[in-house]
Amino acid sequence: MGRKNWLFHGNEEAAEASCRIFTLIETAKVNGLEPYAYLNHVLQALPIVESQKNWASLLPWNLSSLGKNCRLRKMKPARVKFSRAIRV
Q1: Is the pTM of this model over 0.85?
Q2: Residue 16's pLDDT band (cuts 50, 70, 90)
Q3: Cα dihedral 9→5→59→79 (10° resolution)
Q4: Cβ neighbours of residue 28 under 8 Å, at least 6 residues apart?
Q5: DSSP 16-60
Q6: Phi-psi region of 83 (alpha: psi -120 to 50; beta: other; left: phi over 0)
Q7: How far is it, in rounded angstroms, from Cα 38 to Cα 36?
Q8: pLDDT band at 53 (very low <50, low <70, confident <90, very high)
Q9: Between the CA atoms of 39, 45, 47 and 52, what dihedral angle is there, to the nearest 10 degrees?
Q10: Cα-based torsion angle of the residue sequence 58, 63, 67, 71 in order, rounded to the nearest 10 degrees
Q11: Angle 74-41-29 (CA atoms, 0-180°, nearest 5)?
Q12: Would you list the domain boundaries of the chain?
């Protein structure tokens, strides 16, 4: 995701903010949530969050209250490719 994308953020703070959003999106995907629906839910809930406990309830792995429309349609298991170590 990085490399050329970071060039167009303008400044360091903007790049850091983008990284946080990208992290939320990818974490939502890993937890089986539709990223757009998850971000929409979080952004609507942010103004009423008052305590640390409420902040934690917005994390993707704590959101059991989201309906079926926020779940990914079909979850595929992650495929990790392992390469052999090359001895020199």
Answers
A1: no
A2: confident
A3: -170
A4: 34, 35, 38, 39, 60
A5: HHHHHHHHHHHHHHHTTB-HHHHHHHHHHHGGG--SHHHHHHTSG
A6: beta
A7: 5
A8: confident
A9: -100
A10: 100
A11: 30
A12: 3-63
Residues 6+ apart with CB under 8 A from 49: 55, 58
Sign of the torsion angle spanned by Cα atoms 7, 11, 17, 23: positive
Q: What is the percent of the chain with per-residue pLDDT over 90, rounded to a whole number? A: 0
Has residue 80 got a pLDDT over 60?
Answer: no
* Mean pLDDT, residues 5-34 taken together: 81
- Tell whether the model's pLDDT for residue 26 goes beyond 80: yes
